[in-house]
Amino acid sequence: MSKTDAIWAVEVSPSVLNQLAQNTMAETLGIVFTEIGKDFIRARMPVDQRTRQYLGILHGGASVALAETVASTASNLVVNPQTHYCLGLEINANHLRSVKEGYVWAEARPIHLGRTTHVWDIRIYDEATDKLVAIVRHTVIVLNRLTNPS
Q1: Three-class SS string for 85-147?
Q2: What is residue 2's predicted lDDT score, i.e. its pLDDT?
Q3: What is the CATH number of the domain that holds 34?
Q4: What would the mean pLDDT of 134-146 be, rounded to a whole number?
Q5: Residues catalogued as catalytic
Q6: Alpha-carbon distances, residue 125 vs 46, 71, 88, 91, 105 (angstroms)
Q7: Quick one: DSSP state of residue 29?
Q8: Residue 118 pLDDT > 60
Q9: Are 105 and 51 in contact (CB under 8 A)?
Q10: Structural domain of residue 82, as residue ranges?
Q11: Which DSSP letter does residue 82 get?
Q12: Rounded mean pLDDT of 134-148?
């Protein structure tokens, strides 16, 4: 992927993102980044004891955690990390289908990449059937490191 035809300010591989996710909720839930395209990021997550609710199906909160993980990570790759960083501002999810086992995968694509906010469309699919499981919209705020130190 050439930097000139991609939306990313930072070139990084899925393996680097997976290293950065160590000792975070993403690692706890088994979220693994799998692909970075010209304008999207993909990750997968197991449907197991870590991500199921008591009825034995994928927990909606785990789906939202997957969606926020891919979209917030994507936003932080769009901005210059020396001057800016991105944090979640709002998230909305529609859960369309249940999953009992296997894996789900998520793909985040930008709807809006503004100076102060980014809006992402995240689609989550059942890996076994490629059926749509959830549609999520996530808004992040873009903050200046100089005026909003983390």
Answers
A1: EEEEEEEEEEECCCCCCEEEEEEEEEEEECCCEEEEEEEEEECCCCCEEEEEEEEEEEEECCC
A2: 45
A3: 3.10.129.10
A4: 96
A5: 68
A6: 12, 15, 22, 18, 5
A7: H
A8: yes
A9: no
A10: 14-144
A11: T
A12: 95
Number of domains in the chain: 1
The yes-or-no verdict on residue 36 having pLDDT over 80 is yes
Q: What are the Cα distances from residue 18, in Å, to 23, 25, 30, 83, 117?
A: 10, 12, 10, 23, 25
Residue 8 lies in a domain: no
pLDDT band at 150 (very low <50, low <70, confident <90, very high): low
Output the pLDDT for position 64: 98
**Which residue type does 57 have?**
I
CA proximity to 32, closest of 20, 16, 45: 45
> Which residues lie below 8 Å from residue 55, measured CB to CB, with a gap of 6+?
none
**Calpha distance 97→14 (Å, rounded):** 27
**Among candidate residues 69, 124, 123, 129, the one with its CA nearest the CA of residue 102:** 129
With CA atoms as reference, report the closest residue to 105 among 49, 48, 149, 41. 41
pLDDT at 5 over 90: no
